[in-house]
Design goal:
- This protein is 19% helix and 39% strand.
- By secondary structure, it is an alpha+beta fold.
- It is elongated.
- The N and C termini lie far apart (140 Å).
Length: 305
């Protein structure tokens, strides 16, 4: 009985010993193959293999996709369409065709419109015509229409001095024929012609002084790249109108505009309301005459910057 028990316990021991001997005697290459690969180093060095994540990413990179787009790839491996919100949508059709820059600075030397045409900016143009401390001598003519008088022509001359750019003074002389509408009916009834028609027989002479105030300076584009400067003026003054129908002083209120096409020449356009007391055929009233004038002036000295 004791012999049988010893044989029974010795058999498992011999089996375990045989297994240890078998494992110890296996070839070195088989043991190295059974050991897990050391992935502590970079996956690209010789003798070492990359991590399982590199092997899983390789097909995606081979297909031309990055890790950022691999998650958006379709099941068949193709890239998904970009999000329309993130797409760079052009602001206009001209920009989509490549005819305009994406951003045009307000102080660029050139501008490009929506059709791709380039225009050079004018920028701030300095005043190339100075009025301060200069004298202007002008001549001109126009038309005159009033409450009591017929519409007639007028001619005259003007002398102006500008101590400042915005403030000036002038003396204006004008002559015009004065024929009265109300006098014609009386002449036809009585036969007495107190105010005969005609240039020499019935001329009126007006001498008035004005204050000129030019609050606005203008710039007009002429042909090509030329800029013509100008001034908008307010006119106020008074003086005398020499005629038998005028009973007191006359006063002018109006506005004018002048352009400076050259350094020594200006073109002036005025519209003035002349207010004065007139008497005709025993009737006295405050009359308003509208004078429209156009003239040209020469400036002394000819050039000043």
């Amino acid at each position: 009985m004791l012999l049988a028990l010893g044989a029974t316990t010795a058999a498992p021991a011999r089996a375990r010993a045989a297994e240890c001997d078998a494992s110890a005697g296996q070839p070195a290459d088989a043991a190295s193959a059974a050991e897990p690969a050391d992935d502590s180093g970079p996956p690209g060095e010789p003798g070492e293999t990359g991590s399982p994540s590199d092997d899983a990413r390789a097909p995606t990179e081979a297909a031309g996709l990055t890790e950022a787009t691999a998650s958006d790839a379709l099941p068949d491996g193709t890239a998904a369409a970009p999000d329309p919100v993130d797409a760079d949508v052009p602001d206009s059709a001209a920009e989509a065709l490549g005819r305009t820059p994406r951003r045009v600075k307000c102080l660029d030397e050139s501008m490009v419109d929506e059709f791709g045409r380039t225009a050079v900016r004018k920028g701030v143009q300095p005043r190339d015509f100075r009025k301060a401390l200069r004298v202007a001598i002008g001549i001109g003519g126009g038309a005159r229409a009033g409450d009591l008088v017929d519409t007639q022509w007028q001619v005259g001359a003007n002398l102006a001095f500008w101590p400042f750019e915005e403030l000036g003074f002038d003396v204006d002389f004008k002559l015009s024929p004065t024929t009265l509408r109300v006098e014609r009916s009386a002449t036809a009834f009585t036969g007495e012609d107190r105010y005969p028609d005609g240039v020499v027989a019935n001329l009126s002479y007006a001498v008035l002084g004005h204050v000129l105030f030019a609050p606005f300076h203008t710039k007009l584009r002429a042909r090509g790249d030329r800029i013509i400067h100008g001034d908008f003026m307010l006119i106020a003054g008074g003086g005398a109108v020499i005629h038998s129908t005028v009973q007191a002083a006359a006063f002018d209120l109006g506005a004018g505009f002048q352009l400076f096409p050259a350094k020594f020449v200006s073109i002036r356009f005025d519209v003035v309301d002349r207010i004065m007391a007139q008497e005709a055929l025993g009737s006295r009233r405050i009359a308003n005459d509208i004078l429209v004038s156009l003239g040209v002036s020469l400036w002394i000295p000819p050039r000043r910057r």
